[in-house]
Amino acid sequence: xxxxxxxxxxxxxxxxxxxxxxxxxxxxxxxxxxxxxxxxxxxxxxxxxxxxxxxxxxxxxxxxxxxxxxxxxxxxxxxxxxxxxxxxxxxxxxxxxxxxxxxxxxxxxxxxxxxxxxxxxxxxxxxxxxxxxxxxxxxxxxxxxxxxxxxxxxxxxxxxxxxxxxxxxxxxxxxxxxxxxxxxxxxxxxxxxxxxxxxxxxxxxxxxxxxxxxxxxxxxxxxxxxxxxxxxxxxxxxxxxxxxxxxxxxxxxxxxxxxxxxxxxxxxxxxxxxxxxxxxxxxxxxxxxxxxxxxxxxxxxxxxxxxxxxxxxxxxxxxxxxxxxxxxxxxxxxxxxxxxxxxxxxxxxxxxxxxxxxxxxxxxxxxxxxxxxxxxxxxxxxxxxxx
Length: 387
Fold this sequence. Notes:
By secondary structure, this protein is an alpha+beta fold.
């Protein structure tokens, strides 16, 4: 089965996933450089990390606390300033200087927006589970067991989970808020930053004040699921996000090309409104090396129809796209959930066979060749008959 097309990387706002200039602090003369040390794969659960609320960085302060548990043993007793310098050095490697400058400009833009915009529905800006979520989802998360999750979720294809999430009243409030924000932006002649490089319509939710609500949504409601279903791609260490809405329909974006997300785990929720078409299509999970390899037809093909209020949870590296929205107006909320620990660890790995479909196929092929070679050597040595 051939690909739908060459996969694009759907890049998002790097806010929450970059770093400003390294803070230069005095350090012991003999201290090894970053390249000499690696993060621990498993966190040091006995270590109590420092707080970093006062650190000036494009990363949320929680990222530093999360990352500290993975510091090499030689760094755990270092000064707080030394740890900050070390972690900033690690985080800065994710984005080149030009991108970090763009992050800083976006940070200044967001600050200006939030100082001027007046929310329409203030109740949206704090998470109210009983008002936001359908009762069955809220109960499953409160029970907090793999069994409770699996009883609630559907898995139409390996690694893709669907479930009812938002109540209709919440969807309506969020749609109203987005519409109000867009009208305000047009009224005051303020340029709106779009969610990513592939969507020309939509808005970044964090830009007008919803960051704290989305942080809580991920920490208390998405992370429990990600820890169970996506631990191999950083599901246990989610520490930043990019949250936004996208719009499809006449005079909007019509479809979305084949791509992967700049995320470890993606939550995609249809908010409405009335529409036809717009189905998602999924075509297998791939690492960077194999992103444009063939689809395995018996295992990796899924088409999914959106339902307002219903969510899809999948790995960011799960290749997907959106069919044309043929009529009406479709709006979806997306959360790209990221793990700085996983992104650092990924640089040390060569084989992603635990989650990349092509790595798995290649591994099985190598194993089959090895078994065949062993059998051939055995027969040649006179150990048996191949007749």
